[in-house]
Design goal:
globular, single chain, five-stranded parallel β-sheet, alpha/beta
Length: 123
Amino acid sequence: MSPKTLITVVDDDEDVREALTGLVRSRGYSVIGFASAAEFLAQPNVRATSCLIADVQMPGMTGFELHNRLLEVGHAIPTILITAFPDDSDRVRALSDGVIGYLAKPCEARTLLASIQVALEHA
């Protein structure tokens, strides 16, 4: 893991966002959390993100839309989508869109950490 490895968590649920950032930080990664896709996109260091973890269902812009927006502007950040409402068709769509992982909430720590590792290998 490089000292420049930054994991970004985007989730409108503050409790989930804090739990995920705490877990990721406890494994030695730099991590930052945002309450919305717009908040993440507005910050100046989007390109510094090595792995993005985003909620599928958020107000304003979904995790799918965020992933696709990043691709449109040339920021192919390895992305893990998480959702409280897993759906097989959404999983297929996510993976075909190039998302690294599609996980159901609550995520098991080892599953999320393994997905982060795969994402970082793609970075």
